[in-house]
Amino acid sequence: QVQLVESGGGLVQAGGSLRLSCTAPKSIFSLSIMSWYRQAPGNERELVATITSGGITNYADSVKGRFTISRDNAKNTVYLQMNSLKPEDTGVYYCRSDHYITSRLYWGQGTQVTVSS
Q1: Where are the alpha helices (DSSP H) in the chain?
Q2: How far apart are CA 117 and CA 103, in angstroms?
Q3: pLDDT tens, residue by residue, 89-107
Q4: What contacts 79, CB < 8 A, 6 or more positions away?
Q5: What is the Cα–Cα distance from 45 to 2, expressed in whole angstroms?
């Protein structure tokens, strides 16, 4: 069973910052696109940011200029630095890996982010 392990969620006031981390097994990390998704209560899960193994990034319009995705291939870890947080950023944040060769995808267990106004 492949496990993606997330950490870093919590409660923060609007305007604050949080950094999420997600560690994947080495066997899949280096050959995977890594992404962060989020899901607010009553809403569908939505893509937040993506990073390729070569470091190419892509962001949802709602987080551009505020969030930064990065990866440390030596640590098999992807990060999501979230600045200028807004109440609408509240939700459960999930890490996902998409393997280039097998096309298999895996999800983390999710970490709660709550932004108070």
Answers
A1: 26-29
A2: 40
A3: 999 999 999 999 999 999 9
A4: 19, 20, 21, 22, 68, 69, 70, 71, 72
A5: 21
**Do 110 and 51 contact (CB within 8 A), yes or no?**
no
Nearest to 32 by CA among 74, 73, 79, 1: 73
Supply the DSSP symbol for 84. Answer: S
pLDDT of residue 68: 98
Whole-angstrom CA distances from 62 to 4, 47, 67, 81 are 25, 10, 9, 14
Identify the pLDDT of residue 2: 75
Task: Give the pLDDT confidence of 45-66 residue by residue, as tens digits.
Answer: 999 999 999 999 999 999 999 9
Q: Looking at the DSSP assignment, which residues form a beta bridge with residue 79? A: 21, 70
